[in-house]
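Case study.
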Amino acid sequence: MDKPLTRNLKPDGSAATLAEYQSTGGYEAWRKALRDLAPAQVVALVKDAGLKGRGGAGFPTGVKWSLIPQTPGQKYVVVNADEMEPGTFKDRRLLEGDPHLLLEGAALAAYAVGADTAYIFLRGEYIEAARRLEHALAEARAAGLLGRNILGSEFSLGIHLHTSAGRYICGEETALLNALEGKRANPRTKPPFPQIAGLWGKPTVVNNVETLCNVPGIVAQGAAWYKGLSRSQDAGTKLYGASGRVNRPGLWELPMGTPIREILEEHAGGMKPGYRLRGFLPGGASTDFLLPEHLDLAMDYETIQKAGSRMGTGTMIVLDDRTCPVRMVLNLERFFAQESCGWCTPCRDGLPWVARILEDLVEGRGRPEDLDQLAKLARFMGPGNTFCALAPGAAEPLQSALKYFRGDFERYVERG
Amino acid sequence: MNTDTGLDPEETAEIQAALTHYPDPAAASIEALKIVQHHRRWVSDEALAAVADLLGMPIAELEGVATFYNLIYRKPVGRKVVHYCDSVSCWLLGADEVRAHLCKRLGIGLGETTQDGRYTLLPIVCLGACDHAPVLMLGGQLHGDLDAAKLDTILAREQHRG
Ligand SMILES: Cc1cc2nc3c(=O)[nH]c(=O)nc-3n(C[C@H](O)[C@H](O)[C@H](O)COP(=O)(O)O)c2cc1C
Ligand code: SF4
Ligand code: FES
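After joint prediction, the assembly is written out as follows.
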């Protein structure tokens, strides 16, 4: 099976050099685009391929690019490399193992939308990734793959690395733009969408690292090839991961739509001896719990949505039968409460309230009305009531835990 | 050694290099604060004022940015910061025990600095290494698959380095 995202990753974890990257066809798509393809053709290829954003929301990438106005003027591409969603550890592997793949993807995105400047917004804790990206950028510039009049074409592109200083909300695309401009990282109202008025008010595309890493393959090998990689109606391959009490926690590039059972049992090696699967968050901390009865579902956007959760980042967090789901939810809600930017009330005040009720429960101070209060707060934090998706994301593990693990919550109340 | 007021030429030069990446100096604010912090370990009020001056930003605005981030220290920290991950995958595999062991070994609580000024202990959110939970970062270096024995080895090695 073709593994366009991970083909250059080395077992020792070191970065693929420019020479190594090029030896497996690296920068061929970039050369091809500059030589043979009009920007609109690159957009059309990505659209036809059916690539959906891998940053969590799953928005079609080609559609996003086509919303950039085709009028002349400054435009930007921003790589979202903030990766701070708990349980999510996929972009780091790509950044550290194959930085040129990301650079080529970002360059193709910039060419497609007519941007001459791109920023990689990298979380501050990814120190090794920063070192390797700077090195790869220097290699690419020296080889004439970035800079002025690239490879003799009319196209010029500067890519800059911007390292952040640790805050989950910076990953939200409009908060990211404020952070990049040096402002406090509060999200912005939408509309206008970043494609119309983004960085410094200019049309801007924000894409996740893994999303962009799919682009060179699509441009080099075509939409049909890309669709053929998948086992479902969503195209391509996906970096799936698992953490928690499984035998082999890790990350694997597999066809989109691989059944959850196959990921957890074959690739992650099943549960550690003495533990049983109780539930799992399919795509990071801000997705709804699913249960063992969902194991035979395909991991793709639509199937997981129908089951009441989200693909999210595709990295699963496994809850075992010896871990208390209420305490797990407390850990998650403490994270969201701490990382709220404080802009809107349901999030700023609701999340600490949720965390306090959960604390009271696990410390034996629970009251019967607490469970209704939690459900109500989860609703208040739901979609449409807040400025950004942090609060709705925080509501997901809570509301699904109340649904699936109600007995565990009730036992805390009864024990008092 | 740096004084607390003004920026030394090296800091200024590094900040000016960062400015070239952006059409607006404010965009380099985080980078500038990190540069100052790299030289002084933390960002004092005086250093913050000097950076604001260099970037042409109101002090209050830069303050609002500086206090927003987990990795900008507005209080002195030890020579090395120990960031232990307290997010969900690490919690599932024993982050609470990691923290307890660290507190015991270092003789400090969260947010505190050891008496010899060597370590400051701070929690951090998911470090993107959940497949090696529990995880910590010590002086920018990642350590995974932690248990008490491994923690002791890491600390012993650090002690050795001085
Ligand atoms: C609170 C919050 C944090 C987010 N963090 C990230 C992140 O770290 N990385 C990321 O790619 N997307 C993150 N997103 C999603 C982005 O807002 C956006 O959807 C994504 O960057 C779009 O890229 P894509 O279309 O390539 O997926 C976050 C969203 C929210 C609401
Ligand atoms: S939902 Fe939360 S994080 Fe998002 S804008 Fe509102 S307060 Fe900020
Ligand atoms: S939860 Fe600790 S590294 Fe991800």
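Observations recorded in class. Chain A touches chain B through 52 residues (CB under 8 Å). Strands of chain A lie at 76-81, 117-122, 158-163, 204-208, 237-244, 250-255, 277-281, 315-320. We will return to this complex in the next lecture.
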